[in-house]
């Protein structure tokens, strides 16, 4: 089955993201990562999955369970704090994208570069550009898109997924994390 970008006019080039068919793949990537980080955009607080659950609710649970630092973009901090998660940083999406690609950046805590980034909640076109930059200029970094839209510039991405199936996938991911 061929997977196409969510916005059909986008042409990603010859190298496309691996499709996440089993959420346990993301859990395995997280467990192997030495320095993971999560970037959450404002659309995560707006995107309703099913049964009234917002994408941000599940992202917060994943971040807590995996014990990974979170960067909030735009005005996402308030929604994260309301859900019991204080982000480690607040940055523009373009800024964190550039820092992740910068080989001299030592991370939010000064402990070195990250090796895995989970990205969700950015507008599709912004995520597209950010992930294209990381694909081309941050070869040390695995990029996982947790949105329900296929992002071909990520290393791993869910296919275009209906809300109820995406919620189920993220819950399976949380269950697969166990105690990271």
Gist?
This protein has helices at residues 24-32, 55-66, 77-82, 93-101, 124-137, 163-177, and strands at residues 18-19, 36-40, 70-72, 89-90, 116-120, 142-145, 156-157.
Question: How would you describe what is shown here?
Answer:
The protein is α/β, with parallel strands linked by helices. The chain has one domain (26-177): Rossmann fold, CATH 3.40.50. Helix content is 36%, strand content 13%. It is built from six helices and seven strands, in the order βαβαβαβαβαββα. It has helices at 24-32, 55-66, 77-82, 93-101, 124-137, 163-177, and strands at residues 18-19, 36-40, 70-72, 89-90, 116-120, 142-145, 156-157. A seven-stranded parallel β-sheet has the order 1-7-6-5-2-3-4, with helices on both faces. Strand 5 (116-120), helix 5 (124-137) and strand 6 form a beta-alpha-beta unit. Helix 1 (24-32) packs parallel to helix 6 and helix 2 (55-66) runs parallel beside helix 6. The longest helix is centred in the C-terminal third of the chain and has 15 residues, at 163-177. The N and C termini lie far apart (32 Å). The model has no long low-confidence stretch (mean pLDDT 92).
Protein topology:
Elements: E1 18-19, H1 24-32, E2 36-40, H2 55-66, E3 70-72, H3 77-82, E4 89-90, H4 93-101, E5 116-120, H5 124-137, E6 142-145, E7 156-157, H6 163-177
Parallel strand pairs: 1-7, 2-3, 2-5, 3-4, 5-6, 6-7
